[in-house]
Design a protein that fits this description.
144 residues; mainly beta; Elongation Factor Tu (Ef-tu), domain 3; 6-stranded antiparallel beta sheet; two-stranded parallel ribbon; 0% helix
Length: 144
């Protein structure tokens, strides 16, 4: 998509967009415990960050149930183990180190996706040009 005019997209985003695992989730598990999940729904897609030294151990999961104890059931088992704890790993006068797995809420009501025929992903270019008249593009993406 190339924008030389104006484009504004405002989607609905949940109150909780990022949170932490509060318990370690083992490979093969279908349940995770999170610190918060306001406005999350069954069917929503989440991302789990890698926890250990292998940065490729991230994954996407979908919620199959939201439980009163703060846990979420997933539609498929976890491919990797993800570290969780009730609080930050270290917090002292020097600062805070938090090694818990981050959980991001990915589902939005506006998504920008590539066509099935490209397999190149998707890019949004916002720029200006001058063909005798200066044309400057602008874009606002919020909750997209």
């Amino acid at each position: 998509m190339v924008i030389t005019g104006g484009l504004s997209l405002y989607g609905v985003k949940p109150s909780t967009q990022m949170t932490y695992l509060t318990q370690t989730a083992l490979q093969g598990s279908r349940t995770i415990y999170v610190a918060a999940s306001s406005d999350w729904k069954v069917g929503d897609e989440l991302s789990l960050s890698p926890s250990f030294t292998n940065q490729s151990e991230y994954e996407k999961v979908k919620i199959s149930a939201i439980n009163p104890d703060g846990s979420l059931n997933l539609t498929s088992p976890l491919q990797f183990t993800h570290f969780g704890a009730p609080s930050a790993t270290i917090s002292n006068n020097y600062g805070t180190l938090d090694a818990r797995t981050m959980v991001g809420h990915l589902t939005r009501n506006i998504k920008i996706v590539s066509g099935g025929d490209t397999n190149w992903g998707y890019s949004v270019f916002v720029y200006g040009y001058n063909d005798g008249a200066t044309r400057v593009g602008n874009a606002v993406f919020d909750g997209v």
